[in-house]
Amino acid sequence: MKIRHELNAALFDQKTNDYQRMPYHAEEYEFEAVAKGNAEEVRRQLETGEIDFINSKRTLSDNPLQNMKLHFAVSATAIANACIKEEMGHDEAYTIADIYCRKADKCRSPSAVRLTFEELCMDCAERMSEIRKNDVISLHVRKCIDRIYEDLHADLTIEALAETAGLNPTYLARLFKQETGLTVKEYVTSAKMDTAQNLLKYSDLPYADIAVCLGYSSQSAFIYAFRRFTGTTPGRYRKLYYVVRTGD
After folding, report:
1. How many other CB atoms are there within 10 angstroms of residue 246's CB atom?
2. b/e code 19-42 from CB counts within 10 Å (16+ = b)
3. Where are the alpha helices (DSSP H) in the chain?
4. Dihedral angle computed from the Cα positions of residues 91, 112, 29 and 19, in that order, rounded to the nearest 10 degrees
5. 54 dihedral zone (left: phi>0; alpha: psi -120 to 50; beta)
């Protein structure tokens, strides 16, 4: 073991200073309000410091800013785990965490990292609120919605979703429309466009890459669909709404 001497010295130091490490699962409880979708409580806890991502007893880097970023990644994972336990899709939860970790990694000041953490908490709380409102939706339709968000690049036909739900395609189409107010095709398009708008706002991905991520046959097909749905082009949308963080 290459770090045996460092490990022994660190463990001895912790013992002599009566350091008690938090259980690995305890951090998830700190983010209970986030996972429950209680945005107002999350906002209050952020203002009072009840929710934080810095564990002062753990040093993950000797560089203060890098230390904050590494703590951010640890907390982002804990938030994802907490949200998964409250029925957020596994892929969705970790993808949100990954997106925000990359945003935090670009920050150039402690204040920018903290602002990114606040945005992560609020975004997850709002998404969990949406999920909990959809609890009235049947298990079959819930499975289809999870499949849609996790496989936006796939050919999400009513037949494919019916296989996921274990239902007859005609019956699923009627049930989906009844419970969501949208046809499967309309819901898939809405999910793709919602994701596209977030990617245009928060990433530098080229339009061709976004098209591939969302299952469009070409960049032009994506641009056409985006313009038809939003009334503007991806280029215009990014120019208007691209988020440039102060302090990055």
Report:
1. 8
2. eeeeeeeebbebbbbbbbbbbebb
3. 4-16, 26-30, 32-35, 39-48, 64-85, 90-105, 110-133, 139-150, 158-165, 169-180, 184-202, 207-213, 219-230, 234-241
4. 120
5. beta
CA distance 54 to 182: 43
CA of 74: how far to CAs of 18, 82, 200, 211, 221, in Å? 23, 13, 26, 31, 38
Give the single-character DSSP code of 153: T
Q: Which of 192, 184, 224, 185 is nearest to 210 (CA)?
A: 192
Amino acid at 101: C
| Binned average pLDDT, 10 residues per bin, the chain of 248 residues | 59 58 54 90 90 78 94 93 87 89 93 94 89 72 88 90 93 92 92 91 89 93 95 94 60
pLDDT confidence of residue 11: 55
- Coil, helix or strand for 89? coil
pTM of the model: 0.55
Residues in the chain: 248
